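for the recovery benchmark. tokens below, seq after
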């Protein structure tokens, strides 16, 4: 603390028994009260100066109902904040939703970005399968189907099914996949070449 800080305090600068009770930022004036309860206002734009008696406080400076004249020593809530000042109608304005309301747009943008990433990267996109050759019949895989079951139900062999579908992985058949099944009387080895 500086050497002359006591000269900036209210008890040194104000007359005995007069205390500062508030500041009106609308007109830039400090307000004071003496021992008898009379109210005074200071000069505009100045912390100290000639005091002029007034009849009542402006609306911006609410009188303290609970006996706390010191604004800094006013009671605080459990969260550490002082109660908000009231407006000319006596209403207190609070932010509904608290800090979550200010963070909502941020979370909204983050969720949209995550949904786009999930859709474009993680969700597998289905490519239309190539059409089946003329000597085969398309078959849609059902739940529980295996390559052997498909070949047996269409009166063909597993080898012929794998020749017609070279990129099929029998262990990873999914319901809805399309498989080309060779016709019964067609000669597959001649048409597709033997790849077993």
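predicted aa per position
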């Amino acid at each position: 603390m500086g050497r002359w800080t006591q000269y900036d305090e209210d008890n040194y600068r104000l007359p005995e028994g007069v205390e500062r009770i508030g500041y009106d930022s609308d007109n830039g004036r400090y307000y004071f009260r003496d021992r008898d309860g009379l109210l005074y206002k200071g000069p505009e734009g100045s912390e100290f100066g000639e005091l002029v008696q007034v009849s009542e406080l402006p609306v911006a400076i609410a009188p303290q109902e609970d006996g706390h004249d010191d604004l800094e020593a006013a009671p605080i809530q459990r969260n550490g904040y002082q109660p908000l000042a009231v407006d000319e109608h006596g209403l207190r304005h609070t932010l509904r939703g608290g800090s979550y309301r200010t963070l909502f747009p941020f979370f909204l943008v983050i969720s949209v970005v995550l949904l786009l990433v999930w859709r474009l990267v993680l969700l597998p996109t289905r490519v239309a399968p190539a059409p089946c050759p003329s000597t085969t019949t398309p078959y849609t895989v059902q739940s529980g189907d295996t390559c052997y079951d498909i070949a047996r139900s269409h009166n063909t062999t597993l080898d012929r099914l794998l020749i017609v579908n070279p990129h099929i992985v029998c262990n990873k058949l999914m319901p809805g996949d399309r498989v080309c099944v060779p016709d019964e009387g067609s000669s597959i080895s001649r048409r597709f070449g033997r790849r077993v």
